[in-house]
Amino acid sequence: MTKLIVGLGNPGDEHEEDRHNAGFWFVDALAKQLGTRFETEKRFSGKAAKAKSAAEDIFLLKPSTYMNLSGQAVGAMCRFHKILPKDVLVVQDELDLKPGTARLKLGGCTGGHNGLKDIQAHLGTPDYWRLRLGIGHPRDLAGDGRPMDVADYVLRRPLQEEQKRIDQSIENGLQILSLFLKGDTQTAMLELHSKN
């Protein structure tokens, strides 16, 4: 069995600390945990790494296409390695969850997330797994009453306290990953969702 874990984000040093790069932060932490390194893979339009967990091959992917074209990289890797959508886990930032919250689910709507829309278009189905890492919504910010544009919000670094919570949600996601990879998705969801 082969699994693909995709972290969503935008390439480049200028985006490294953006909220939109929470997916990249997750797969970077996972690569470190698994003792593997990302290498540039032009045929997959991104950076890829490979590891073993039990008897499974696990591929990690960070698309270098920018968020809105993430499906190009995911589709190319799935076709090349014959990975089915149900064996794909996409790790993404989620505006509708508070920082520190993480949720695991199979399928569903894209919630306006352009990276997910493009992945769905390239896979031809919404039925792939998502690990949603909460980054909060700009409407929740206290301020002068003027709403911040969502694009501006996701392309900025989190406040220090938010970053701590996001880092904790990444750790929580890593802790349940072995259950997920073994196919015990119900227990993985229960454990993850009870943490936040």
Structural description of this entry:
With 196 residues, the protein is an alpha/beta fold. It has a single domain, classed as Rossmann fold (3-Layer(aba) Sandwich), CATH 3.40.50.1470. It is 37% helix and 22% strand. The chain is built from six helices and seven strands; from the N terminus they run βαβββαββαβααα. A seven-stranded mixed sheet has the order 2-3-4-1-5-7-6, sandwiched between helices. Strand 3 and strand 4 (56-63) form a beta hairpin. The model has no long low-confidence stretch (mean pLDDT 92). The active site is at residue 20.
Strand order of the largest sheet: 2-3-4-1-5-7-6
Count of helix runs:
6
**What can be said about the biggest beta sheet?**
7 strands, mixed
- The CATH class, by name, is Alpha Beta
How far apart, in Å, are the first and last alpha carbons? 31 Å
Q: Give the overall shape.
A: globular
- Radius of gyration of CA atoms, rounded to a whole number: 16 Å
How many independent structural domains? 1
Q: Helices and strands, in N-to-C order?
A: EHEEEHEEHEHHH
Spans of 5+ residues with little confidence (pLDDT < 50)? none
Q: Beta-strand percentage? A: 15-25%
What is the number of beta strands? 7
Helix content: 25-40%
Return the CATH topology.
Rossmann fold
Oligomer: single chain
- State the fourth-level CATH superfamily: Peptidyl-tRNA hydrolase
CATH architecture designation: 3-Layer(aba) Sandwich
Query: What's the mean pLDDT score?
Result: 92
Structural class assignment: alpha/beta
Function: Catalyzes the release of premature peptidyl moieties from peptidyl-tRNA molecules trapped in stalled 50S ribosomal subunits, and thus maintains levels of free tRNAs and 50S ribosomes.
Catalytic activity: an N-acyl-L-alpha-aminoacyl-tRNA + H2O = an N-acyl-L-amino acid + a tRNA + H(+)
Keywords: Cytoplasm, Hydrolase, RNA-binding, tRNA-binding
Main location: cytoplasm
